[in-house]
Amino acid sequence: MIQTFFNFDIIVASWPIVMAGLLNTVLLSLIVVPLGLFGGLLLALLASIRHPLVRWPLMAWVDFFRAFPPLVLLILLFAGLPFAGLDLGGFACVAIAFFLNTGAYYGEIFRAGIESIPTGQVEAARSTGLNRLQALGYIVLPQAVRNVMPDLLSNTLEVVKLTSLGSVVAVPELLYQARQAQSLTYNPTPIVVAAIIYFLMLWPLVRLLSRLENRALAGRR
Amino acid sequence: MSTWDRFVDTFFNGKVMAKYLPDILSGMVVTIELAVLIVITGLGAGLALALIRSLAIRPLNWLIIFIVDLFRALPPLVIIVLIYFGLPYADLSFSGFVSTWLSLALVLMAFSEEIFWAGITSVHKGQWEASRSTGLSFGQTLMNVVLPQALRLTIPPLTNRTIAITKGTALGTVVAVTEILGEASSAMSNSYNPSPLMMGAAAYLVLFLPVVVLARRLERKFAWKR
């Protein structure tokens, strides 16, 4: 059993391939998380304009991406767009899909955070002479972000896990590299190693989150 | 042919759509089957684990916490690949359908256990003590006093999670499940036209958009009072 699933020779042989994948997963995460945060912030700022002509399309946008599986979005960009003469390549497709999908999720979180700040604070800030943007940037956002920190972290965990979808469009991240190594060696060890790497990488975040969430839900009563 | 006509002819080709509509519909059936199985088994297992955890048997709780952490940290696609491509080496072969079902049910189990558990612990200790002192057994207290309050509290986070994980059925295409995305992709390569993919995308919206809207309502109804 250990010979099959945790073969030492194969671990050694596939190490460079798997490590290259890990590096790409980290890089990919470092790109798509800020991209999603940026998209989300953009949506949340738009949502703070309380005009029905802004609010309804925005809600539809968010609901659309909550209903749409990220993999379908990715395939649509990767396999569909070339028919319109637009061949972006796997990496750019992942970046765009994540910007749209995770942006919608981050947007909902930021919006909830901004709405948790009483309007009196904005009024007070404005009356001291800050303009709208300053009130938002200095008064509202810092508190809003702190209020929804657990949700932001939890979504970030999901985004990092989601980078594994890149393997479907041949982005050489951790899962893709592990699958390559598996088919080269006819042995599942590289996938097991990749799973262990994912687990070790994300476990601390999961632990932290489970504490934060327990505290948040228990404190509501 | 104008650009618009060419666009419509490429992405919304009537002939191709008519030809592959039955495939997409059968894909929808598979997606629904998968989704229902995942929701029932995943939430059921999650609730069961949370109830076992409330018995407070130390070593058992450590095991539960570890399992929950494991399936929260691993990407669902990695679990699917591990079960589908890895287990056959141990002479244990599951079909793509079963692999996807098992994987996503385990993930939903982990997330929902966490949420159910948080709900149970949020019920004040005094309520436990009061119920027990009126003569209710541990089980009766749990079922009649604690759970009704706890479950109500878990609805907003739970609906969100459940939708996000159920959408993951699309991952089944990677292991050759003939759900919507799988049917759409193979129809696209057969016809060399992206119209089936557009139909597949529409099919997902038809299935999941009502659920998302319903969830929004539920969340508002059961929202935590601040």
Question: Overview of this structure, please?
Answer:
The complex is a heterodimer of chains A (221) and B (226). Chain A is built from 10 helices and no strands. The longest helix of chain A is centred in the first third of the chain and has 40 residues, at 8-47. Chain A is mainly alpha-helical and 221 residues long. In chain A, α2 (8-47) crosses α5 (90-115) and α2 (8-47) packs antiparallel against α9 (174-185). The model of chain A has no long low-confidence stretch (mean pLDDT 89). Chain A has a single domain (2-218), classed as MetI-like (MetI-like fold, Orthogonal Bundle). Chain B is an all-alpha fold and 226 residues long. Chain B contains 9 helices and no strands. Chain B has helices at residues 3-11, 14-54, 58-73, 76-86, 96-122, 125-133, 138-167, 180-191, 195-221. In chain B, α2 packs across α5 (96-122), α4 (76-86) crosses α5 and α7 packs antiparallel against α9 (195-221). The mean pLDDT of chain B is 90. Chains A and B meet through α3, α4, α8, α9 and α10 of A and α1, α3, α4, α5 and α7 of B.
Keywords:
heterodimer; A: 221 residues; mainly alpha; MetI-like fold; 10 helices; 0% strand; B: 226 residues
Q: What's a quick, concise take on this entry?
A:
The complex is a heterodimer of chains A (221) and B (226). Chain A is mainly alpha-helical and 221 residues long.
